[in-house]
Amino acid sequence: MGSLRDNISSNIAYYRKLNKLTQKELGEKLGVKSTTVSNWEQGANAPDMEILFDLCKLFNISVTDVFGCDSIESDNFHITPEEKDIVIAYRVTDEIGKESVKRLLGVEKRDSDQMKGIS
Questions:
Q1: How is residue 32 annotated by DSSP?
Q2: Exposure winner among 58, 86, 92, 94, fewest CB in 10 A?
Q3: Which residue, 7, 115, 26, is CA-closest to 65?
């Protein structure tokens, strides 16, 4: 694993592209210049905490996703990069798409107690 700054810079670029945004468009949504976004993605600097949380809200991800940390710590539960991409794609799809995926996979709503430890 690279440095935290490397993780943040590559993950900002990854999620920006996943959401089909240019650096300019992302900057406009966050109230910063496109050169600022470029600097984040190059690792020259990192967003401040307020902007970091705005990024997470915009991309519908957690801070641990931006940091590149796995939020599931069990050795028995491993998510492959492909599975993570599927989860990310699911998170950014509309409600109709989410319902279609749930129906296809036979997944019904689960009670929050059943989901503890899986985030």
A1: S
A2: 94
A3: 7
**What token pair was written down for 17?**
């592209």
Q: Which residues of the chain carry a pLDDT beneath 50?
A: 1, 71-76, 111-119
Q: Which two structure tokens, joined as six digits, stand for 94?
A: 């509309």
Least Cα distance to 57 among 81, 30, 18, 25 occurs for 30
Nearest to 37 by CA among 55, 24, 50: 24
Write out the two tokens for 68. Answer: 């590149």
Q: Spell out the CATH class of 4-67.
A: mainly alpha
Domain span(s) for CATH 1.10.260.40 in the chain:
4-67
CA-to-CA dists, residue 68 to 8, 21, 74, 91, 114, angstroms: 7, 20, 16, 17, 25
pLDDT tens-digit readout, 32-46? 999 999 999 999 999
The whole-model pTM stands at 0.58
Residue 35: the pLDDT is 97
Report how far residue 92's alpha carbon sits from residue 14's, in angstroms, rounded to the nearest whole number.
13
* Cα distance between residue 30 and residue 92, in whole Å: 18
